[in-house]
Structures are given as C-alpha cells and as structure tokens.
Amino acid sequence: MLPFDSNDQHIFKLLIIGDSGVGKSSLLLRYADCKFPQQHLITIGVDFKIRTVTINGERVKLQIWDTAGQERFRLITSSYYRGAHGVVVMYDVTCLRSFNHVKHWLEEVESNCGEVCRLLVGNKNDNPQLKKVPSRDAKRFADRYGMEFIETSAKECFNVEKVFTTIARLMLGQKAREQGREWVYVEDESIILNDPRIEDIRKQGLCC
Ligand code: GTP
Ligand code: MG
C-alpha cells in the first residue's frame, strides 16, 4: 500500500492501458522523467510512478500504473484495475490494429472497474506519412463512448503533460460530483510539482 501524505488533498490511481508497443511506458517516462527510450522495452506485469499536479489550486497525487500490453500478462494486469479512478486508453496512430483494439480495452475496463474516468490517447503522432488513424475517426469514436481524446507524441514531447492534467481534471470533477460539491475547471491552471529536475530542464528549454 502506498503511504498517505496528508499534504496531498487528493490521491488518484490512474492506469495506462493499450496494445503492446503503442508507447505507454514511453509516455509515462517522458512525463515523469523527461526521457524517451528508443527501444521497445516490453513491460512485464506493471510498473508505477507517482507525480503531483495542481489543478484549480487543488493538489492531486497521481499514482500512475503502466501496464503490460502483451496478452500473456493480461491476468496479472487485470488485477491492477481494482480501485482505479481513471484510465488512459492508448493506441498508436500509425497502427490501425491498435485503434481497432480500443473497444476491447474499454470492455476490459468496464468488466474490471465499472465507472471510471476514461481518456482516449493516440500516440506516435509525429510522422504524418505514417499516420493510419485519422484524427476525425478517433474523435468520432471517443464522442460515441463519451470520452475526451488527445493525440500525443512521447517522442517529440507533444501533448504529454496535457494527458495527465486532463485525466486529473476529470477525476477531480468526478470526485466533486460524488461529494455534491460544485467544481468548475479553470484552464491552464495546472502545474507539475515535486520534480525540480523537470522544472530545471524546462527552464533550459530541453523538454516539453
Ligand atoms: P508494452 O510494454 O509491451 O505494453 O509496450 P508499450 O506500450 O509500453 O510501448 P513502449 O513505450 O515500450 O514503446 C514501444 C516503441 O514505440 C519504442 O520503440 C518507442 O521508442 C516507440 N515509441 C513510443 N512512443 C513513441 C512516439 O511518440 N513516437 C514514435 N515515433 N515512437 C514512439
Ligand atoms: Mg511498456
């Protein structure tokens, strides 16, 4: 169990799921450590990182679970869905198959954790010539499932932070609704805390 930090107002468990190779680990590594791995280092089971963000002045600690996309780890990873507040469902914009599998991943979410905040992410959006999934198709799909949709590139650090601030906002809104609180999101109020290295790199213009 992760220790509770009383300075944090909210703690949310977030899962990243999707086919093997779509870039789940790369997105998380880019977000949390400002790094991009060139090789596909297959995730075995799960891995997690913790980051704190501030949304509307509310501190949110994100426990971000990076799951294995490979079928052979499915039994292990499905046990990690329990207690999740949000799920990022990822596909690769250069791989139609990974997009066609999103429906299956959503069914997996439904059977393992019921009502959670969901965000659709199309990664590897950095080479228009290789793009196989048109943005409008993915947007239409996301609308049909009542999800927000973001295209990213972990490689070029495009929209990476937006993924995590968006899902954090959705989870905060959901929690407020459950508590009967009024909650209005103020755009661009989110900042990452807790990682001076990332801030330093940003100041030098080397990242995100
Ligand atoms: P599993 O752990 O097997 O489920 O895969 P994964 O989804 O974690 O994929 P991973 O992050 O390991 O990335 C797979 C490959 O895609 C690696 O070779 C990455 O370098 C590459 N990759 C990841 N993100 C991007 C991206 O935004 N653009 C491009 N061009 N390549 C990427
Ligand atoms: Mg991985």
Describe the structure.
The protein has 208 residues and is an alpha/beta fold. It is 33% helix and 24% strand. The protein is built from seven helices and seven strands. It has a seven-stranded mixed β-sheet, with helices on both faces. A hairpin with a 2-residue loop joins β2 and β3 (58-67). Residues 189-208 have low confidence and may be disordered. The protein binds guanosine-5'-triphosphate (GTP) and magnesium ion. The site of magnesium ion (MG) has 4 residues, from α1.
Q: What structural category arises from helix and sheet content?
A: alpha/beta
Small molecules bound in the structure, each named once: guanosine-5'-triphosphate, magnesium ion
Proportion of beta-strand residues: 15-25%
Count of beta strands: 7
Task: Count every helix, treating DSSP H or I runs of 4 or more residues as helices.
Answer: 7
Q: What is the distance, rounded to the nearest whole angstrom, between the alpha carbons of the first and last residues?
A: 31 Å
Please compute the radius of gyration using only Cα atoms: 16 Å
Q: State the shape.
A: globular
- Assembly category: single chain
Name the helicity range: 25-40%
Order of helices and strands: EHEEHEHHEHEHEH
Largest sheet descriptor: 7 strands, mixed
Mean pLDDT: 86
Strand arrangement, major sheet: 6-5-4-1-3-2-7
Contiguous uncertain segments of 5+ residues = 189-208
